[in-house]
Prior knowledge:
By secondary structure, this protein is an alpha/beta fold.
Amino acid sequence: MCGIVGYIGHREAYPIVLKGLKRLEYRGYDSAGIAIYDGKEIQLCKTKGKVVDLEQKIKEETPTSGTLAIGHTRWATHGIPNDINSHPHYSNSGNLVIIHNGIIENYDSIKKELIKRGYHFHSDTDTEVLVNLIEDVIKKEKVKLGKAVQIALNQVVGAYAIVVFDKAKPNELVVAKLGSPLAIGLGENEFFVASDASPFIEYTNNAIYLEDEEMAVIRRHKGVKIRKIKDDSLVEPYIQELQLNLEQIEKGGFDHFMMKEIYEQPSAIKDTFRGRLLADQGIIKVGGLEDHIQKFVNANRIVIVGCGTSWHAGLVAEYIFEDLARIPVEVEYASEFRYRNPIITEKDVVIAISQSGETADTLAAIKLAKSKGAFVYGVCNVVGSTISRETHSGTYTHAGPEIGVASTKAFTTQITVLTLIALKLASVKGTISFRDYNIYLRELDLIPKRVEIALKSNDHIKSIAKIFKDAKNFLYLGRGYNFPVALEGALKLKEISYIHAEGYPAAEMKHGPIALIDEEMPVVVIAVNSNHYDKVVSNIQEIKSRKGIIIAVVTKGDTTVRNMADYVIEVPETPESLTPLVTTIPLQLLSYHIAVLLDRNVDQPRNLAKSVTVE
Ligand code: M6R
């Protein structure tokens, strides 16, 4: 779960790689490093800390001239974050330099073997083992770098995206991938490699995404040659034209990506609708679904897998699929699903939800479901991501790049896609009346506007944040469709402010969490108009009688809860099943403001990374 960047071409490589690392920092940010090669000397600088710390260190001590460079931003797996464990790593001779994203699981036995053969190690990393294994192959087999990489990778178990170069080959980068993403940007006599396309988007729109178990030798003047690592067969490259633009990956006047992404939600949801929701004509058209609709209709059940926020979106989907399409749904943490022995048959449809499309546990759950014969459908944001390729079919959320580690627009657009699918299935199955179907379509069409209105409470929410920023604990409660929203609200607060928060179904409160309530405990209750409204009102009363402090999210014009709550935040009236799309907004803003007031690193909270490609 690290970010890797490389460049070989005719320009100065350092600024390109440095900028690329800044864009990839969302993938990991406990240490960073760069190696620059001018054809004579390799300059290598690395440090614990962020890319700005690396930049500062390089300014002080490292010449930066050279047209080949590789860089890395790390999220530690083997070895604590420190200068020595940071990448790039040299081989013992100093001739090979490598960066690596992933984990080599059998590194220990290889390391012992290499130590016996006289190799020594400076770091605790699996990566340093890999680069020395490659060096050992070069020496033993008398082969060139590309071949040595191939032979070495056939001996390792684990996951990797690597970039490696040899001092003796100033015109060559060798890259390989298994389980971690790797894109190659194709310019005019210049090549870029990176964990995603953001580091090279201003230079080229043409990219090759390596598949698992592929490697490529990239030669400055001769281009890219791709091979299968296992059998050495040549692979015809598939060049994709990228849709991404630079503006989408910059902050656009906001202090943080998270805030930019919260504010992008009205347009992100519109983008998710585009071409799919034709409310005036009463049509829903979901590309990836159309050819497979009978699989869903005839399924025994739908099993939804995901992690974190994506799992929460799955929980919302469970309500809407069962409500509208009357298909039984189970929602599972991908990380649990994959390690038990789930009963999955070819009559099941598995939906995998993932913003990044790279989450290792979700990917493993997909592979398991496929092996059991299920039809697997992906809901991903990142186009061309591993999960989008591994699934039988799927739908992109089209939310645009989400850079802040805390998921915001990914969540609402995932719910949007899943709602479209549920409605489509309901209409095909006839579990919804023609009238209700059309009402839903019109209501869905109004969601972007309602999200915009919900965003207008920002200043009010900021003032509430000021009051509660020093709270030690928060409780989030919701019922029905808004139970997953309570979970998501608590997750947002935890991950960016480091305040302990728990989400609960409001009715479960009396089975335990009520013991936590006292005059110190802020309780965020989602109390919008719904079938559960009266019950939620009763829960609020129970909290009030124990002196808890109520921050309530209510429907505009509500008076009952307003009279009971300490603070209220209004959202526009919305049909219950669509409320998660609007009630989520104030909770995102509340976490954001509390985190900013506490001076937290909102976009890159401690210990986290945007895409979790380790197990
Ligand atoms: O990329 P994915 O949606 O698969 O990521 C899953 C989780 O790691 C992710 O949703 C995480 O919980 C969020 N960063 C939380 O905001």
